[in-house]
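One thing: could you explain this record?
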Amino acid sequence: MRITVPSLPLGKGEFIVFAYVGDETSLALYDQKSDVRFRVESPVWRNGLMRVDIRWDVVG
């Protein structure tokens, strides 16, 4: 699977990407990753929750 995020409206800060794979009830966790870190330099600072549109693709 590949998940594409066409637009990520982040403000200034340091971020960690967390990804989880679980069942449809969210009770069984099959895998997790959190090894991607990145920093955004911007004059804008934002806080709060946001909804991000994504695209799922089957690869391989």
